[in-house]
Amino acid sequence: MSGLKLFCTDTTNSGMTEVMPRLAEIEADVQGLVETHMETLLGVRFLASEYSTRPLHGGRIDSLGLDENGSPVIVEYKRGTDAGVINQGLFYLAWLMDHRAEFEHLVRDRLGVTAASQVLWSGPRLICIAGDFTRYDVHAVREHRRSIDLVRYRLFGSDMLGLETVASVSGGMQVSRRARRQSVAQAAADVQGAVMMELAGAVDEVLLGLGDGVNRVERKQYRAYQRLRNFACLCPPQRTKLLVYLKVNPKDVDLVPGFTRDVSGLGHHGTGDLEVQLRTPRDVERAQDLFRASYAAA
């Protein structure tokens, strides 16, 4: 995986032994492993496996799910490198958009009425998990106006799985960094005025600038910043502050009253157990290490 090497300590040998990467014996092994732990690995709640698209389309979707923001997700798997995985996934994505009621019925059966009522149809996603991808695959996803993630896998030893995002594109996000900032700033200005406008714009700029693979998902209650799975959620401004929720373990942070708060077990919009309260540009500077830690964890 991009030259990554994995070693484990070995007191009986030279002190360190390399764990050699390998592909799965069959595609179904990868699929079964991901489906069993889909929420942990991808931030996606599992809905169905080998879902039939009926005789007219004549296919089976490998996995169906719903991500942290309510976006429908199709996951397609290939053991090694397969030039057809992206086109196959896009074919199923088109089918999904034509069968919204059927998908919502599935969500209602598996996750309940509330989840079904909050499905975000503006951002359906395709996640392709394979042994590898070509440069043509990476180029192809950037030409589509759909949210597509290419994820390379490797198995290590008997009980370790590695996932690496090779490419990530978010549909509807093809706007300049300045335009992104202006849109966020304008939304904030409608609520609070110049101070909150600038603060929201600064936060947006920092989070989008953490890496090339950062996508942004708009929800009514929050704005999610995603790297395969959410790493930050920015809520609409309150009168004097902005709230950002991060995927950082609060136990690993020296909590500061009025700045950081443990919200694990507490209800709030967005995802993440660490709440960061931002009131000034200085707070944004103070929070950058936390932003980076959450991005890295995702």
Features:
298 residues, alpha+beta, seven-stranded mixed beta sheet
List the helices and strands and how they pair.
Blueprint: E1 6-10, E2 15-19, E3 21-22, H1 27-36, H2 38-42, E4 44-52, H3 54-57, E5 60-67, E6 72-78, H4 85-97, H5 100-111, H6 113-117, E7 125-130, H7 135-143, E8 147-156, E9 160-169, H8 177-191, H9 194-208, E10 215-218, E11 223-227, E12 229-234, E13 242-246, E14 260-262, E15 274-278, H10 281-297
Parallel strand pairs: 6-7, 7-8
Antiparallel strand pairs: 1-2, 3-8, 4-5, 5-6, 8-9, 10-11, 11-12, 12-13, 13-15, 14-15
Q: What does the model show?
A:
Helix 8 packs antiparallel against helix 9 and helix 9 runs parallel beside helix 10. It is globular, with a radius of gyration of 20 Å. It is an alpha+beta fold and 298 residues long. Helix 7 links the parallel strand 7 and strand 8. It has helices at residues 27-36, 38-42, 54-57, 85-97, 100-111, 113-117, 135-143, 177-191, 194-208, 281-297; strands at 6-10, 15-19, 21-22, 44-52, 60-67, 72-78, 125-130, 147-156, 160-169, 215-218, 223-227, 229-234, 242-246, 260-262, 274-278. The strands form three sheets. Strands 3, 4, 5, 6, 7, 8 and 9 form a seven-stranded mixed β-sheet that branches. The protein has a six-stranded antiparallel β-sheet with strand order 10-11-12-13-15-14, with helices on one face. Strands 1-2 form a two-stranded antiparallel sheet. The protein is built from ten helices and 15 strands. The longest helix has 17 residues, at 281-297. Helices cover 35% and strands 30% of the residues. The two termini are 17 Å apart.
